[in-house]
Amino acid sequence: MQRIRTAPPRYWLVLLVVIFFLGFPTVISSFLASEWAQALILAIAIMGLNILVGYSGQLSLGHGAFMAMGAYISAILAHRYKMDYLATVPIAAVVTGVVGFLFGIPSLRLSPLYLALATFALAVVTPSLIKRPADLTGGVQGILIVQPDPPQLASDVFGAVTGTAMTSDQWIYYITLACALILFWLAWNLARRRPGRAMRAIRDGEVAAAASGVNVAGFKTLAFGISAFYAGTAGSLFALSTGFISADTFPVSLSIQLLVGAVVGGLASIPGPLLGAIFAYFLPIGSNQWVPSQTWLPDQITSTVKNAGPAVSYGVILILIMMFAPNGMVGLIRSGYATLDRRLRGAPDPKTGQMPPDPQTV
User: Fold this and answer.
1) What is the pLDDT of residues 179-238, one digit of tens each?
2) Beta strands in the chain (DSSP E)
3) 99-122, pLDDT tens digit by residue?
4) Where are the domains of the chain?
5) What predicted TM-score, i.e. pTM, was given to this entire model?
6) Shortest CA distance to 126 belongs to which of 108, 98, 99, 145?
7) How many helices and strands in the chain, by DSSP H and E?
8) Helix, strand, or coil here: 126?
9) Residue spans of beta strands (DSSP E) within 208-361
10) Residue 53 gets which letter from DSSP?
């Protein structure tokens, strides 16, 4: 009881967020629950990318390829070999994580720029590779996935709360939420333990980290493996949520979308991927719906946003983020909270005040 009373405020904030996401499907439609499930799936993938980019300092532009791998592993096992889809999720995550770990070994010899180009090439070539074994992947036809019905216990509990039957989309939302909670908790523990400290040391300076006894090669490949593990999980859940996958489901723009979400949310932070995923998923939808409805805007702007909504939205917001919040949304929230706390306590602004006198020479 004493530990509960003395718990930091951020723990209570996390509890409120969890309660919010647990009860959210009870007040929204099944379609909106499906959209929020896809936002949580993006948050899982962005969390993995955040471990790679934010904590270990390695840039990847091809995480959409790892999502495609996880999605197709689960889809093939469920569609071709009739496995229960939920049982395929950990299999897809582990296999993708192993492939990411192996991919990280040769990347040790690449500079950051060439590593970014190599991962970008992986994202470019993945859709073409998927189409080749048409008997296995369905080629351009793709694979249709039957969404599971909710179990009776979950349906009864949901019906007792809302008075309506639980749909498959709402059940998938809760599956995605459970996976997101587990993976975010694992990332939080990873950041607080020795691996997280070692990755941050490598990010800040490889030479200094190696001089301190950090296994630079081991932790960099480990970061790649963990990041791919998260992306494989997200890809498997993405296939379950959409009910259909094909080579065109994982374009190059998906990898860019993940990186944008990681940067906007805030690198090297745990809540950042969630905020970045909400931004990356809902901003293009909102811009495509809001801008055409504004009659005061010129027709050229309306047509441009209608034809290239995500690109225009991402470009404008990224410019604003880089100008006013270089540390992302989490950094902006933290700096705003620190400023408000100083004002409430009456403490002076550390950036203002009288300069100390110059040292005098005796």
Assistant:
1) 999 999 999 999 999 999 999 999 999 999 999 899 999 999 999 999 999 999 999 999
2) 143-144, 244-245
3) 999 999 988 888 888 888 999 999
4) 2-251
5) 0.90
6) 99
7) 17, 2
8) helix
9) 244-245
10) I
